[in-house]
Amino acid sequence: MQIDWFTSVDGAMQRFDELRGQAQMAQEIAYREKKIQGWCPACRRETNMHLVETPDGGWTNLREALFCECGLNSRMRMIMGVVEKYPPTGRFLMFERVTPLFVRMQERYPFVEGCEYFGDDVQPGEIRQTHGIDVRHENMLELSYPARTFQYLFHGDVLEHVPDMQVALRECYRVLEPGGTLLFTCPVFNFRKHNVRAVVENGALRHIQEPAYHGNPMDPNGALVFAEPGLELLDDLRRAGFATAELGLAFNPAQGILRDGNPYDDYNMWPIIFKATRRR
Ligand SMILES: [Zn+2]
User: Fold this and answer.
1) What is the pTM of this model?
2) What would the mean pLDDT of 157-183 be, rounded to a whole number?
3) How far apart are CA 155 and CA 158, in angstroms?
4) If you measure from the C-alpha of residue 123 to the centroid of ligand 1, how many angstroms do you get, rounded to a whole number?
5) What is the 104 CA–ligand 1 centroid distance (Å)?
């Protein structure tokens, strides 16, 4: 996995500018050919990635819709590749359990643990049945785990659905052991600042903007988006106490990892992953 790491938003944005032309060309080819050949870090071989277009003829999101034969889309392949490069060596928790990504991760790291969010009325740590298996419920705002439990944490596109990102990042920090690693993705547009859509105040949900929802394997109604995180997540990580905070750019047409192809440039998402480590 080729990945460029940035510790500053300015550095990342400068690289976006440099790559813009190449990225535009790569996404045009993907839309035209409806497939792209490349190295899959999950399969560990050169494969064909096929585009599954949205049925209504609207914009097809290249982050989610460019599938390798193994069933992983670009976002998941990026995650597999980065985890392979910085592999867990101790207790490893993923904030997902019922997804194809968890299954592939478990094949490679059999010790991985998973959890899902079942709702506010469920006790953190409680085990519930879903998708035919027992799954642990966790709420990123109040994890049931003691401090310094994990060497490695991963969450994928969860943070934008948590009412308070800063509290969630602090909780991640708390349950990591010294020197431990947090890795996560979330949909980030090319903005510095977060775009807050909804908040919880005194226990009550208040919408600031029109409610937006994302697909959710745990709920057919989707998951409410509290905020569209901006690149300032890097600052949030440092504020949460992390000793290092980096933004990884995994753009690489040879791995079928492109921008998401959104027709509006500010919203045309780069393939980004965040990595942070707890102080030793
Ligand atoms: Zn594959």
Assistant:
1) 0.95
2) 96
3) 6
4) 36
5) 10
The tens digit of pLDDT for each residue in 62-74 reads 999 999 999 999 9
Q: How far apart are CA 56 and CA 241, in angstroms?
A: 45
Tokens representing 16 are 């976006």
Instruction: Report residue 235 as tokens.
Output: 């600052």
Name the CATH superfamily for 4-277: Vaccinia Virus protein VP39 (3.40.50.150)
* In the chain, domain spans: 4-277
Closest residue by Cα to residue 239 from 175, 158, 143, 173: 173
Span from the CA of 238 to the centroid of ligand 1 (angstroms) = 34
Which of 48, 84, 86 minimizes the C-alpha distance to 68?
48
Q: State the greatest distance between any 2 C-alpha atoms of the chain, in Å, as a whole number.
A: 52
Euclidean distance between CA atoms 112 and 257, whole angstroms:
25
Whether the predicted pLDDT of 45 surpasses 90: yes
- The DSSP code sequence of 162-215 is SS-HHHHHHHHHHHEEEEEEEEEE----S-SS-EE-EEEETTEEEESSS--EE-
